[in-house]
């Protein structure tokens, strides 16, 4: 990581370029899938290499030839101030530019140089997320009533997964009655928290007939809210649930979400099932899960070589540019 002193030097260099008349401007440009080879282009920007070198400048080619200024700063070799004799760009999905000319090194003239820039991304480009394998992962959660105890189930996510919101939460022990269960998760694209409510299918909390018991063998999707389940207070009312004033109507059973973590919570069910003395409600929920691979957006790339009057290379630096943005633009 570049030091604070280097960052301060970068700002000084950028100021020198502005004084020289090289303040950055946004020029309209175009790229095409077909190969475009042109000297009517512009290379501009500011960046810090992994190795600590600073690069900044603007080089432009038009009908009058190449013009502009470029600064390269190295903690070991000092300042290179360069002006171009020519510029050459190749644009066809990949965006690559070269320019070369005379340079001064720490104020001494008699040097030549060549720079290569590969414009690989736009600022703020998000990482590429790709799906890999699809599988079913089962989450088990339960509520015991004597004594009262909750055991939430966690879905293994391996950092980030794509999951389908189920239409129901099957009861594997006991009975849901008309009680409540929750599926809570954190969205992968930020810190947004979501909780989805599921309702037991029976008409009452303690089913009394075989038909009511059959209806209580699942919690069914109801709706989702912006927020997470707040906790438990040893009763079966709604005073420990989330704020239901912020519904999320766009989320329905079958919606596919990318999540960082997911939890299943059984709030309540029948206190009489499977028996009054050992009442327990357990769900076993199969989630359709797609594992995801995150590929960071590529950094821009930069390379410079400088030679003295005898043709000896006196400076060479190259590498990715993780900080800043170098742009290669075709001009109209």
Description of the structure:
- This protein is mainly β.
- The protein folds into two domains: 4-125 and 298-330, no CATH class; 128-295, no CATH class.
- It has two helices and 20 strands.
- The chain has helices spanning 4-19, 210-215; strands spanning 36-38, 41-48, 54-62, 65-74, 78-92, 94-105, 108-119, 128-145, 148-151, 153-155, 161-164, 168-173, 180-187, 193-200, 218-226, 256-266, 280-295, 300-307, 313-321, 323-330.
- The strands form two sheets. Strands 1, 2, 3, 4, 5, 6, 7, 18, 19 and 20 form a ten-stranded antiparallel β-sheet that branches. A seven-stranded antiparallel β-barrel has the order 11-16-13-14-15-12-17.
- A hairpin with a 5-residue loop joins β2 (41-48) and β3.
- The radius of gyration is 31 Å and the shape is rod-shaped.
- It starts with a helix and ends with a strand.
- Residues 1-32 have low confidence and may be disordered.
Please give the alpha-carbon distance between the first and last residues.
Answer: 38 Å
What kind of sheet is the major sheet? 10 strands, antiparallel
Q: Give the overall average pLDDT.
A: 84
Helix content: under 10%
How many distinct folded domains?
A: 2
Structural class: mainly beta
């Amino acid at each position: 990581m570049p030091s604070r002193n280097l960052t301060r030097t970068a700002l000084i260099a950028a100021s020198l370029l502005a004084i020289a008349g090289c303040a950055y401007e946004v020029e309209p440009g175009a790229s095409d899938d077909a190969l475009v080879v042109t000297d009517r282009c512009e290379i501009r920007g500011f960046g810090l290499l992994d190795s600590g070198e600073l690069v900044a400048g603007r080089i432009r080619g038009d009908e009058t030839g190449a013009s502009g200024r470029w600064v390269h700063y190295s903690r070991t070799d000092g300042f290179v101030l360069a002006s171009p004799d020519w510029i050459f760009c190749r644009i066809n999905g990949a965006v690559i530019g070269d320019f070369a000319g005379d340079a001064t090194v720490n104020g001494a003239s008699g040097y030549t140089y060549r720079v290569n820039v590969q414009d690989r991304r736009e600022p703020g480009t998000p990482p590429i997320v790709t799906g890999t394998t699809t599988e079913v992962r089962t989450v088990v959660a339960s509520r015991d009533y004597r004594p009262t105890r909750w055991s939430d189930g966690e879905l293994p996510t391996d950092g980030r997964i794509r999951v389908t919101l189920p239409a129901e939460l099957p009861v594997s022990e006991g009975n849901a009655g008309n009680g409540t269960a929750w599926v809570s998760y954190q969205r992968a694209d930020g810190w947004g928290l979501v909780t989805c409510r599921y309702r037991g299918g029976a008409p009452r909390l303690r089913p009394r007939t075989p038909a009511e018991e059959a209806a209580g063998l699942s919690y069914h999707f109801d709706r989702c809210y912006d927020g997470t389940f707040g906790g438990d207070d040893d009763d079966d009312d709604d005073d420990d649930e989330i704020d239901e004033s912020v519904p999320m109507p766009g989320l329905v059973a079958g919606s596919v979400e990318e999540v960082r973590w997911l939890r299943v919570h059984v709030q309540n069910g029948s206190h009489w099932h499977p028996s009054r003395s050992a009442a327990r409600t357990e769900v076993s929920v199969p989630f359709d899960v797609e594992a995801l691979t995150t590929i960071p957006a590529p950094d821009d790339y930069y390379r410079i070589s400088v030679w003295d009057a005898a043709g000896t290379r006196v400076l060479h630096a190259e590498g990715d540019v993780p900080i800043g943005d170098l742009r290669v633009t075709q001009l109209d």
